[in-house]
Amino acid sequence: MFIAQDDSACNNAESQTNKISISGNIVPSHWYHRLLRPCGKSDTTGIAILSELVFLHRYNGNSEFQLNFNYFKRKFNFGASQTKDAVIRLEQAELLKRSLRTVIVSGRRFTNEMFLVLHIENVLKLNSQDQAKKFPLSGRKEKTDSLEISSDNKIKKNLSRNRSSGSNFYSNSFLEKENSSATVICKQRFSLASFYPLVQSDIDKLQTLCGRQFSGNAINEILQNLSIKLPNHSFPHKSAFIKYMGKALAHEMRDAVKISNESFKIKNNVTSEEIATQAREEFLNEIENSRDTSPKMQLSRKLAGILEPSVAYNFLMLASFFDNTESLKTDSFKIILRKKLELSSSDHSLILAQVQSVYGNHINRLEYEAPPHITLSQNVQTTDTSFKQPRALQKDETKVFEGIWGEIRQGLIDYYGSGGNAMDNAWFSKLIANVDADNKKLTLKAPTKFIKDWVQSNYTHLIDKLCSLHSYSLEEVQYA
């Protein structure tokens, strides 16, 4: 049955079509098959940029343009890193060339202006049939080896034969045929830790995905923290990880501006060794920057600068210099040690030399003393060193914690595991506890302001939790 069409309706449709206005260049469809990203997909960003340059060339006949990344970013709504990577891929394919120049306009000097030179001859070759061989933009391996092709054909034939022979459940069972020639393909999955640290290109992608300006250091810190909290979280490939990380950063509760500095660290990422190292550096820096001109502080500064940092830290934390002007008339210098300490003969010689530089060359030996309950290590003993300690105590006594503070100290040691004893020696053992048993309150006193500030900023939350287990509360950490 023939249905007559209304001529007026056709004319209206044609008039509406004529009103459509399209600006810009028309992209050949085969570009989407030949301009590929390393993953094998069409390089749509690069295609849009190249088509814009071809359009400008056809419009004014020039092949050189003063354009920067922001031009394409604004026109096509691309990201900054997305645009830059696409231009670099086009340059590597020899479709264009970048150059930076200095331009003077009306007496004003503009440096590092980017110019793009379009290689017309290579763009024309892009339309040829053999272009896939001349512009391997995809980064994929071309399978030209006849042996590889033949083996692929054999695999395809075997697969088609298996599909046509009915059910192959038993014949292809890997459980029953261990020596089968079939290949088992195990898909590898990647943990969060395997992507740490992220490179700059990945950081740029994540910044674009999450829409927040986290710094590279902040993103890597957040990733490391997630890898510790979620050790079993895994991904089939990097693209899945990037999507997951982009969502995580979009919902991150931390302020992007506050944490985007190079010194930002998440406490969960810092090990006990790193904490101890940081404390040692801050302690030694405080001594070296002190303006105290007393002989004891002069000696401390000299020892902090000449001894190995870990030796200087341990020695200065435990040693007290006997400040008695009458003793300077003798040839010995007294040092009181609050705990057991091991010093090599070379360390002892360095200490003696610094004592002589401050108190005089008439001093030729060091005299170590210790409280009655401390046994000095015999490793510090040298020919010019004398020791004064009770003869009855020649063995190290077992460390026993007493009272509520002793139980809390033991809880701190257990919490930090293998590094607990080192943490206790460095910090908790130096605190004096005032216990108010009636009101169930605990007040801690630190010998120095540095120790007080460090304990208050790093350990009070944990000490308070341990106090609550014993129905106590931590009042404060004071500087005695």
From TrEMBL:
Q: Which residues form the DnaA N-terminal domain?
A: 425-468
Q: List the InterPro entries hit by this protein, alphabetically.
A: DnaA_N_dom, DnaA_N_sf
> What's one Pfam family the UniProt record gives for this protein?
DnaA_N
The protein's name is DnaA-like protein
Organism, scientific name:
Candidatus Megaera venefica
